[in-house]
C-alpha cells in the first residue's frame, strides 16, 4: 500500500507505524533512555528532525549491510524512531472500541504483530531512503498547548512530493507522535476502519494470528469475511 510505504520511507513513526508493544524492543536498545530524556526538552519539529537525521546517518554509514540483511532495519527503527512514538496510545486509537474488550495479552500481541507486519512487508524501502528526500518544517506551538502538528514533505522515487504530517502530543516523557497524516489521510483513522471491520467479522484473535504470520494489513479483509 502506498500509505505504508510513504510512512516508512518518510521516517515515519509510526509510525507506523505504525506501532510496537510498549516495553518491547525499545527497552533493549541502549539509546532509548537517552532519547526519552532528550524528548523532554526538544520541540516537536526538533524531535522529528533529530530522529530522521540519526536514522539517515546510520543508513549512509551501513547501507550495504542493511541491503544484505534487511531484517536489521527493525533495529534501526527501534533505535531512532520508536522512542519518539506513543505506541500504546496509537494502538488504542487503531483498535477503537475493540481495545476496551481486548485482554492485556491480546493488546500486546496486536501491537507487536502489526509493527512487525509493517516492517517485514515495507521496511526494505528504507534502505534506499536519503536525506534529500525529506524536508521538515518548523512547527508553531502555543506556549501552553499539549498538541502539535509537524509538517514534513517527502519526495518519492519518481519525484512526486507528498505531505506527511505528524500529530504529536505532550507526555510525561516529552513530545511524542501518535498519528501520521499523508495527503490529508490519517493513518490511525484508516486502520481503525479497516481493523474494526475485520475484527467484527473474524474476531481479534484471528486478525492477530494472520498478522503474526506475515500477512499485509490490507490483505486481512480478503479472507475469513462474509461471502
Describe the secondary structure blueprint for this structure:
Layout (H helix, E strand, L loop, with lengths): L1 H8 L3 E6 L13 H8 L4 H25 L4 H8 L6 H9 L1 H5 L2 H19 L11 E3 L10 E9 L5 E11 L2 E9 L2 E2 H16 L1 H9 L15
Antiparallel strand pairs: 2-3, 3-4, 4-5, 5-6
Helix pairs in contact: 3-4, 5-8, 7-9, 8-9
Name its key features.
five-stranded antiparallel β-sheet, Nuclear Transport Factor 2, Chain: A, 47% helix, disordered N terminus, single chain, 9 helices, alpha+beta, 227 residues
Overview of the molecule:
- The chain is an alpha+beta fold.
- It has a single domain (2-222), classed as Roll (Nuclear Transport Factor 2, Chain: A).
- The chain is built from nine helices and six strands.
- A five-stranded antiparallel sheet has the order 2-3-4-5-6.
- A hairpin with a 2-residue loop joins strand 5 (174-182) and strand 6 (185-186).
